[in-house]
Amino acid sequence: METKTTRIILIDFENIQKFDFDNIDTTNTSIAIFVGKSQNKIPFSLVEKAQSFGDRLIWVKIAGDGKNNLDFHLAFELGRLSERMDKDVEIVILSKDSGYDSLIRYVNEMGIKTRRIANPAELSDSKKQLPSSNFTNYIVNNLNKIDGQKRPRTLRTLKKHIESLLRDKAGAGEIDAILEEMFIKGLLSEINNRLKYTFDAAEEDR
Asked: Would you state the pLDDT for residue 202?
């Protein structure tokens, strides 16, 4: 990574596969995409866009197995960057995995501007509107009434739950917008592919 950049984005590709940077200024942005060992299919549109970055974008293929293997690689790269980057360089982790958050707080305490986002639209210079839905509050209120132990624990089961609630009122795009809004607002996160609901103070970390 070149030190002349003003922003570095580290992407957890195991956690987020759908993203684009068409609506932001990437002139001074460098990107590292961390790809899991078993992820052998990369969308052509992403590869095509990646080529335009030249040496400002690198692919990091994880060789080993392990539940948190990619997370460890990304965390190691964050540590390396923290040692050699200028203080005015912002480091952004693109992931819905809140497991990074405690490390990010520690890095910020060292004076390195670091944050995690769940969607590229959260970048300060993004021209893309943040995903949102008129049904989000309804879904959150419904989930809040369900015992924490009985809430859907994976994205697949949560999508099915939302589909059953909305029936023919919303299509797949609307359901995706609901989920993205919940992730962006911090109402929902993932840890080791398991959902964590943060809108309920009684919800325990699991």
From this structure: 42
Element (H, E) at 81: helix 69-84
Going by C-alpha positions, the residue among 24, 192, 203 that lies closest to residue 96 is 192
Q: Would the pLDDT of 10 be above 70? A: yes
- Which CATH superfamily does the domain covering 7-122 fall into? 5'-nuclease (3.40.50.1010)
Residue type, 94: L
Tokens of 99: 């497991």
- Between CA 50 and CA 56 the distance in angstroms is 9
Domain with CATH 3.40.50.1010 in the chain: 7-122
- pTM value is 0.84
Q: What are phi and psi of 33, to 5 degrees?
A: -105, 115
Q: Report how far residue 88's alpha carbon sits from residue 93's, in angstroms, rounded to the nearest whole number.
A: 16
Contact 97, 155 (CB under 8 A): no
pLDDT above 80 for 23: no
CB 97 within 8 A of CB 186: no
Extended strands (E) in the chain: 7-12, 29-35, 57-61, 90-94, 114-117, 188-191, 194-197
